[in-house]
Each structure stands twice: as C-alpha cells, then as structure tokens.
Amino acid sequence: MNGALVLAAGRSRRFGSDKRLYSVDGKALLLRTVEAVQAADLPCRVCLRPGDGAIPLMLALPGLEFIECMRAADGMGATLAAGVKACHDWDGLLVVLGDMAWVQPATLAVLARTLDSDAIVQPSYRGKPGNPVGFGRRFYPELEALDGDRGGRMLLNRHPDCLRIVAVEDPGVLRDLDEPPARA
User: Fold this and answer.
1) Quick one: CATH architecture of 2-174?
2) Which residues have a Cβ under 8 Å from the Cβ of 55 and sit 6 or more positions away?
3) Percent residues over pLDDT 70 in the chain
4) How many CB atoms lie within 10 A of CB 181?
5) Is the pLDDT of residue 102 over 60?
6) What pLDDT does residue 150 have?
7) Largest pairwise CA distance in the chain
8) How many CB atoms within 10 Å of residue 88?
9) Residues 71-81: what's their mean pLDDT?
10) Are residues 46 and 20 in contact, defined by beta-carbon separation less than 8 angstroms?
11) Average pLDDT over every residue of 116-141
C-alpha cells in the first residue's frame, strides 16, 4: 500500500503569513491539498510543526493522521525525515507539498499506482518535472537521514536508474504558492 505524506510544517517566511490558511476559492490552501489526496483514495498523513493545534481542527477529515515534527524549524529535510519515520507501514509514499493544492486527484492516483518499493516516480507536464515525487520503501533510510533544508531531490540525482518519469496532463504539478498573489 502506498500513501501520501503532506509536508505542512514550514514557516511560510516568503509568503509573509501562514499560507496553509490562505483562501483559495473559499477554502484554506492546505485543506484543498489534503482533500485532493483523499479524493485520490490515498491514505494521508500530514507533517505539522509543534504547537499547530488549530490546523488539525481545520483538517477534521476522516482517516487523516498527523505527525508532529519536533525539528520542523530545522527545515524541509528534517520534516521529511520525521514524516518518513512514521510511514514504515507503507510500501511507498508521495511527498506532497502542502501548498500544491492544484494537483488533480487523478494525477495523485496515477503516481501512487506507478510507485513500487524500489522506484522513485516524478510527474512531468509538457517536459517539465514537477511534484509530488514518490519514493519506494527502498529509499526510506536515505530520506530519514535528511536534515536541514535539503529535501529528497538529491535522491533523484543519486538514483537515476530508479526514476520513473510519468507524463501527465496536469499543470498543477508545476504550481505551488510561495508568495501571495499580487493584488490588482
């Protein structure tokens, strides 16, 4: 069984406020991301920073699990490492960034089906690599050793023979929200 690990423990420094709560079509950005994962019929665990008590209340969805990442302040690598340690019951996981609310559930489902315990999967839209990236169980030890702000991207370079590029017709794999949209 494969699942989705949603990384949502960042501080949104470039955004200027808690972007997880930013409203996209009347819903919080993080809620939209998690709903897409659940619509893909994937088990979902969300990485949060300590003291994020209001976020689980906002995400009160059935079957959703939360992982408190004690070292989230150390960066995405530390958060990913903590999250992977809590997912050993899965054969593989999609690393879903909490601010990528535009990835379609069908895309998530295809990536999860393509992933096996010895593979790395990455979506590509019109030749451009995107997210989420999936990692099979074989790569858990390397992911658990991550620290600081370096995420799993280096594993793609380290294991090109295991990388499966999945062409998708979903521009959402290229879209995230690092800064607030400009106001007109």
Assistant:
1) Alpha-Beta Complex (3.90)
2) 8, 20, 30, 46, 48, 66
3) 92
4) 8
5) yes
6) 76
7) 48
8) 10
9) 90
10) no
11) 97
